[in-house]
């Protein structure tokens, strides 16, 4: 699983962890500027994170309970975790500069 590989890489420390952390940070900054971060609903009372579709699909009585606890947030797109994990697993992540990786991630798959 990509998230596990990313967390393992970060937890291991050293240059690989620093490179990955820098790429993630740069991705968030640049994606934020471009409006590329995903919009989600955070339920403060339950620490639950929902997509807009999931929030819209909630039963009216369930939505009424959490309505005052919903906060709109921006988040790192899950597809990027998959792509980062794949690049790490295939050894490609270490062959490019941080800036080039961010550029490739923002352009998306071809």
Rg over C-alpha atoms, rounded to the nearest angstrom: 17 Å
The shape is elongated
Helix-residue proportion:
55-70%
Poorly predicted regions are: none
Main sheet attributes: strand count, strand direction, barrel closure: 3 strands, antiparallel
Number of strands: 3
Distance between the termini: 23 Å
Strand order, largest beta sheet: 2-1-3
Concise overview:
The chain has helices at residues 2-12, 14-34, 52-56, 60-66, 78-89, 98-107; strands at 38-43, 48-51, 70-75.
Please tell me about this protein's structure:
- The chain has 110 residues and is an alpha+beta fold.
- The protein folds into 2 domains: 71 residues; 38 residues, no CATH class.
- Helices cover 60% and strands 15% of the residues.
- It is built from 6 helices and 3 strands; from the N terminus they run H-H-E-E-H-H-E-H-H.
- It has a 3-stranded antiparallel sheet with strand order 2-1-3.
- Strand 1 and strand 2 form a beta hairpin.
- Helix 1 crosses helix 2.
- The protein is elongated and about 50 Å long.
- The model has no long low-confidence stretch (mean pLDDT 88).
Core attributes:
110 residues, three-stranded antiparallel β-sheet, 15% strand, elongated
Layout of strands and helices, then pairs:
Blueprint: H1 2-12, H2 14-34, E1 38-43, E2 48-51, H3 52-56, H4 60-66, E3 70-75, H5 78-89, H6 98-107
Antiparallel strand pairs: 1-2, 1-3
Helix pairs in contact: 1-2, 1-5, 2-6
